[in-house]
Fold:
Amino acid sequence: MNFAKRAIVALKKIPEGRVATYGLLAASISTPRAARAIGLVLSKFKADSQIPWYRVINSKGMISIENLAVPKQEQARRLQKEGVRVEFRNGNYWVDLKKYLWKFKS
DNA sequence: GGTTTGACCCTAA
DNA sequence: ATTAGGGCCAAAC
Structure:
């Protein structure tokens, strides 16, 4: 299975109402330093995909999206819809990792 | 098959 | 506490 497919399998393991970071998701598929490559995979999804692409944020708890096809506002909305509290601050959306971060099984 | 490009992340100052 | 700089990896050219 190639990298992108493994990433998608891991993505589906993030439960509703929780988030993961790019780095931890990469680590969970045995490539701990491939955080940027995860972003590359996610960039291919459309907003209405079945895969929960929106449950991934950066290590600081910020929604990290510049893509024009899917505005960050849309990601914030999707998260809020399933119970994640999202705060708007300094032009960006923030999530409290202490509360919502999902830790993958070792 | 070398080079460039990011929805990243850690370190040092 | 904040931030610039550099390293990393997989895809797309």
